[in-house]
Please model this.
Amino acid sequence: MDKTAFKIYLITLVLSPLIFGAVHTYAYTIMSLGVLIGSLLLVIKNIRKDPKTNGYKVQFPNTSLNFAFIILLVFLVFQVIPLPDSLLGLLSPEARVIAQKSLPASIDLISESPIRDWFSLSPYYYPVRMSIIRWTVYMLFFLGLTQVLNSQRRIELTIFLIIITACFEALYGLAETYSASGHIWWFKKMPYSLDVSGTYINRNHLAGLMEMCLLLAAAYAGALSTRKKKKKIISDHKTSLRGRLSRYLSGEQRFNKRTLILFSGVVMSIGLVFSASRGGMISAAGAMLCMSLFFIFRKNHRRKGFIILFLFLITSVYALHIGVEYPIGRFKYFDVSLEARSRYAKKTMDMFDDYKVAGIGVGNFQYAYPKYQAAEDKDIFIRHAHNDWAQFFAEAGITGFCLFLAGIFYYIYRTLRLWRKRADPFAICLGVAPLAVITAMAIHSYSDFNLHIPANCLMLIAIMAIGYSALHLERHHGRDKTLYRYHIIHLKYKGILALLLVLGLIFWNGIWTIRHFIAEAYCNTVTNSTLNRDQNPPLEEIKEAIKKDRWNAEYWYKLTRRLRKIRDSKMGNLEVDDEDRRRYQMEIIRAMEEAVRLNPFKAGYHIRLGWEYIYLWKDPDYRHRWLPAADISMERAAYFAGEKNSYLHVQLGNFWVFRSKTINPAKPEWGTVWTKACWHYKKAQSLEKRKRLAENIVKYVWKYYPDKEFVSKVLLIENQSLLKEMK
Model:
């Protein structure tokens, strides 16, 4: 089982970067299942019979990252546990407000209390659940990989596979970019792109891989530079040609290994430079400086800095020979890029101000951000803040951020304390690699989102596991073995409970990973630029997706769109009576209300639901229930709309114009409704200056108020000339 788990881990580690960085559903499903299967095998292996008591016991690795993994896993679970209204309001008043807005508006009207149920700190459960799965996979991968890296041979094999993978990424990216092919496997890259991205969609993520693997190569080269072994000298004339050649090419030849690693480092450095990632270059330089300082602090290892310097000098010569005008030229636009990303980070911190204590929910950034998005970034869908520090602050709040820092600092403290005690060059050099890689990711995360790329995060965990195993490696008399500490629990009460918890965690993650994959196979919602997926599948496939994973709000919204098409096709059929039409409409409303309940952040969901309420105009409760429910939905949409999309404000303005025709102009309510329409129309025009937008507004208002005086109230002054064009 040990060897099988080791092979599964290595295959998963190498395959993840090659399949587009494991950002697509099928890719991260393979990654997750690989880690979970390997971990399950190790858990079974760790159940052993105690010869003293004839009973069974189970052991779990006791590593310096256990604390960080466990406390953050508990925190993620806490974010999705339903809490009482009073406690929710105390921890996150804004989450309580959003919980109120997630309730169906038609039910909210007839409810005595605005909140009837308990709600969680995270308004949208689905992305937090996916974060729990991802975090568990990383946790199990570290614990499992450290356990199977129990010899120097396995550690070196893992390092070689990582370096070979990184070199392939760099060479493949260079070949595709500068041969004018411009493909990533079968996927055609953007024609204007001169950036090297390997098998990644984004060049910055290739840069993240390159900087991590480059640091590992530098550390391993340092480990080989002072490795000494006493060998029996055999004269060449007594050794056969085959024997001499075998010795020369043998992995035991320090010079040959070091030369190969240094050459690989040059290849990775060139890949990093030609990725044109400014953040990647700066991060790699900062991490190299960090690694050099660690070596300087050890008297016997100060010359390691020369190896690192030599690596960069060779890289510079190669890069200058090839030509680095384009990569270096990107620094000319550094200020522009920094300004945009600083704006993203500032708006993200505005989000944090509303969810200071416990955050909005890890994974919820892309859904909550449109409310805070700056007008300069209108019509851009921003999935990440391009600053992992700010994004995690907003998603986890002060509590989660402090827990994360506590776990990482504890790991660094334990690593440094052990590193200072070791004298073996192999342990000293590879033991510093995780600290250098963490430094690189910490710097790069200020301007990018590498830690949201599954393959890169898995690589970071792998290097941390390599460093941890090297620090615990003991070599005596030609034998080597890692000396780990384990939690050993007898399988009675506590032991059985602990074993069931671990197995339950593995199976729960495995089941939901598979269910998520099957649901996405039926109805695609995860962005996938490399496969031509049908974005509007048939009704039966959408319903199958909901059966597999009903917590994804996008499935319910797509169900609504499909049902609306069916409804519209039946509206012209005279054989369909009012009762059947009402039944169709209620099915649409229920699906749309479920989408809003699951994900209340989407302003478009609220707008669509509001219009669907209007279709029940023949219902006896229309005036007292459905029309006011539509008003509530539009008010909620306005709360989340922000300045991201002018179209949303046009839709809101259209609704309030329509709504004004249902109110007597002599009543005060008419003026309130008309004011809302004017405000949204003017907001839309302030976000988008196109003449066509104003024309559409005029045409819509003209249908209800064919009077220039009324129409002029909803237009900005510069568009008044459009009124003259109306017939």
In short: The chain has two domains: 2-81+120-228+253-494, 645-727.
